[in-house]
Structure formats: structure tokens, C-alpha cells
Amino acid sequence: MTTPQEELLPGTRRALLHRIAVAQAEGRAPSLVAAVVRGGRAVWHGARTSVDGHGPDENVQYRIGSITKTFTAVLVLRLRDEGLLDLGDPLEKHLPGTGAGEATIAELLAHTAGLAAESPAPWWERTPGSLRPELSDVLGEQPLLHPVGRRHHYSNPGYTLLGALVEELRGAPWEEVLRAEVLGPLGLTGTSTQPRAPHAGGWAVHPWADALLPEPLEDLGRMAPAGQLWSTTADLARFAAFLAAGDDRVLSAESVREMRTPAAPAEIADLETGATYGLGMQIQQRDGRLLAGHSGSLPGFLANLTLSVEDDVAAVVLANCTSGPLLGAVGADLVRIVAEAEPRIPEPWRPLDEVDPTVLELVGQWYWGTQPFALRLSADGSLSLGPLAGGGRRARFRSNGDGTWTGLEGYYAGEVLRPVRRPDGSTSHLDLGSFVFTRLPYDPEAPVPGGVDPQGWRGAGQA
After folding, report:
1. Are 210 and 200 a contacting pair, CB within 8 Å?
2. Can you give the pTM of this predicted structure?
3. CA–CA separation, 308 and 346 (whole Å)
């Protein structure tokens, strides 16, 4: 008897349950629920609770806090993809009069707009949004604390501005746009701006005693695009699958990949922890694995969504306590457990359908000066260039359709790779942003910058 490939093995399921059980017990969470996604669908749900009887399942709502920001970012990227804005546009172009209009849309998405982390007092997470009815109430008299674009400084008011931008360009409330353009198409029926039964209650746990205090549940008003949403592990599992692969009804795979790409300058502490920020998504290196997603917290609730595209595994963890379990670590561990216990099975190797002989002529070994590089033709039709041994610059290149290729990543991103041919049509060398790659080290038959000594290579006794 074989186990269906989409199911997790019993040992993996027990390891996942053990991890959330430890988190709930040591973190003293009234309840904790989790889900794991593989192959674009939820393959495991788990829950631990302090209440006797039936524990919460994948359909119980929890408040997800700042994971809401990722939903708001999706709406903004949709506007960009429709041509209604450019990420380099200053906010003032589309939403004038805020006092923070010199910041670009991209800078707001990446928390590099220089804005304050919070709105003016009283603390917006434990007070009604009616206290801040206007954008000016959210931003305060001096909204900018840092030079625009110079540093990553997490800003909740920044996402309030992005929500207002969505409303301005769509001509409808943020909540309605979200429901029509994201929640509906993705089938996220358990996600809403207000709690719906069944939902968990939010609790504070006494730091020095096993005692509980109910937390107030406030409507955040203008701050809603930064943290209002309630959701379930079932819905967030579907959302995680979308953030990994895209869905053309909402956002393309290329655009969600852009969201997962670092877009903010790293602070010193970020360099030490391997963390950075994309466009509405947190990014980190952990256990040698690149993880993307977002965390969330509001009084009474903690939330985390973590995904590893390379491993094709994502995790969602929700708890109903103000502080306690470190859900970012739990989410990363759930991804690691599955990725290590049941590694992703690669797709079968298949040859190219067609091979262009002019491209095939380019592959193989090349030299930049004396360093050997390999140029390979990939199954998707792109070229990849990298050193044969040790460290060095690596990049993939996309065909421009005219015999040239444009770099997609790293040092060569945006640079043009141009094969230079001799009068007889054979390839003399590769020109890559003024770097000359030759078939021989310092090939005397190629126009090596600075020229090649006519006496050629020699031994120590010939120098």
C-alpha cells in the first residue's frame, strides 16, 4: 500500500503536532492553530487549546494583524499592473495633500518612506478608529521621521496611505475593493474585516501568573489597511499558495515574485539576522532557507504566514494571545520539518522541444580574463552564466529576440550580453556590459581590453 503523494507521512504529522504543542504550552496561549501547505493546497491542520473538548479548527477566525498589509500590497500591485500607477510615482501624484506626498508608492510598500511607525497617541491598536477619522489624524503634524528612501522603518500609517490610495483610484472603500478583487476570486470566504462566528476571543495572559484578561476588539477605522482583517488557517493556506505561484485572476506569478523580492535597504541588525522587506512581504534567511511572508499582532492575537518557494512548503500559525509564543519561529520550523522530512520531488528532466543552433554555439566554457565560466542553456530557454568553481558573479539572461540577452539578477541585472561575431559568422567573444568573455584565457584573437602581450604566456625563466 502506498501513501498518496499529496499526504504527509505519519512521522511528519506527529513532528508538526509536537512543534505546535510545545509552542502552545511554553507560550501559554489559550489556543493555537496551524496549517501546512504543499503543492498549492493545505495538507495538514493542527490545533492545541486550553479548553476541554473540541478545539478550534481550520474554519475558526483569528485576527491576523499586519498580514493585512500583504493583502493591501496586492491591491496596489493590481493598480500598477493595470497601468493606473507606477511604483516610482510620488504619492502626491495620485493622493495630494497628505504631507507625505514626496514618498513613492514603492517606498510606502517597502516601509522606506521615512514615516513614523505609529499614529499619534493614543495607541491606535487599543482605541477606536473613530478617534482618527482623517488621514491627518493618522499621520500627525510631522509624519516624516527620516529622509525619504534612505532607510527601512516599519510604518503602520504608511499602509493607511496605501489603503487611501486604493480608495482614491478605485472610487470605493478599501474593504469593498479587497472583497471584490482578492477575497472573492481566491475563495477566501472566511476572511473579513469584522469577526464572524466561529471566531476566537482575544486574551492577555498575565506574565507572572496563569491568569487571563480579555482584550478589547476595536474597529481600526482609517488604520484598517494596516491590520484590520480576521481570517482562518484554511483561508490563509490558500492565500499562501497564491503568494507562491500567483493567480492571473488576481495577480500574476511575476508580480507576486516581485513582492517577494527585497526592496528595502537593510539595517545593521537586519544584516545580522538575515532579514529584509519586499513589497508588502517580510523576507528572511533561516536555517539556510529563503522564507517570505508576514507576521501580525494586535492586542489579543498573534499571526504568522511563512513560505519557502524553493521547497514548495508554506505554514500558517495563529494564536489568541497578546504575547507569548514566537510564531515566526514556529512557522519557520513547520516549513523546515516538512522540507527536511519530505523533500520536494523535482520534476522529471526533459529535453528542449527545439534547439536554436546559433544559441547552442554559445554554450560551454568562457574566460573572463583568467577565470573560467560556464554558459548554459536552460530548459526555459534562458541562458545562465556562472564560474566553474568557487564564488563569483552568477546570473540568468533572457533573450531579447535580436541575438542579445538581458541579465535578470545580481550584478548583471539589466545588463546586455551580446555575442560579437567575426566576418565569417563565428563567435569572437561575448560582450557583457564592457566585460569581454573569450574562449581562451586572454585570447589574442579577441579584442581583450588593454590588449594581449604579443609574446604570450611564459614560464618564470622566460620572464
Report:
1. no
2. 0.91
3. 15
